[in-house]
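Example 5.3 — Phospholipase
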Amino acid sequence: MSDVVVDDIVAVLPPLLQTLESLSFVARNLNPQEFGRVMDIAGEPDEALQAVRPRLADWPEKFAHIKTALEVSIEAALAGYAGLRTVQSGEGDLVSVFRALRYGPRALEALYSLTELPPVSGFFIAPELRDDAELQARLAAVPNDDTGVFHERNEPGSRGGFSMYVPEYYTPERTWPLVMALHGGSGNGRSFLWSWLRDARSRGAILVAPTATGSTWALMGDDTDTPNLNRIIDQVRERWRIDETRMLLTGMSDGGTFSYVTGLDGASRFTHLAPVAATFHPLMAEVADAERLRGLPIFITHGRLDWMFPVQTARQTQGLLSAAGAKVTYCEIDDLSHCYPREINAEILQWLNGGA
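Solution (predicted structure tokens):
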């Protein structure tokens, strides 16, 4: 690689990675009443990124794949921040914020193709494990076959497909835990994949992020999603070895609620449930399969500041499910509103693996 290209990468990556971290910070701490304060804390990394963007202009053709990935990631990151700034200036509303934050996963998807670059690979490692030399060595090796990020009929706007990630150091010599992560209402699996990828990559789990068959999960009426999830499980098991004792169903908001709807059914194949920021109707505990509930590990995560589903709902759910015989772990996060707390993933994986 030429010295000029190296110098440009060294100049571009820090503000790009910082802008992506800031977008993630806003997504994690989004609260309508605190939006201005959160944006002030997030800062202005996009200004530095905007300043270095022209450095990608005149690269040799042989580095086109790196240039293209960086350009796509930069453009998405800047578009996301521009959308947030519009709302910060007094135009737009909460829906506009959600639209702006959708650019974050697009930027991450483009950037992930460059994990051959050590700073990029490090970015996609959980912060507390970035000094783990053994993990770094596994990730630096030539990827094994059938690993990385895959999309199956899951283009933006499509329904019923799935995206997934298999650690690059996957080997069929052993079985691997499965995390199936369900997006929130009107979301999609291709974006939600990035809420979990860093932890699946760092801690060795196969990650599947499906997209609902309808505009959101089948919380009422005909359930077309459960058969689709079972189809996806079958498809994944044909190519990769899954540990049948560690099959987690988790989800955010409507996805968390649907993890109850399908996961409490006696025919469910999932061994663990971990709903996040979900709602739960008391009748669900009454109609759930009693044998299925007995001893079922359930990890409930909810924010004390949740403005969509008040935390009292989660506290009541803990009591109802515990009384029904489930083995409930409850995590209430003081500073969390109706957002996905990516920091909980490590604890959920430890729990899934029998460490809690």
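Remark. The chain has two domains: 3-106, 143-352.
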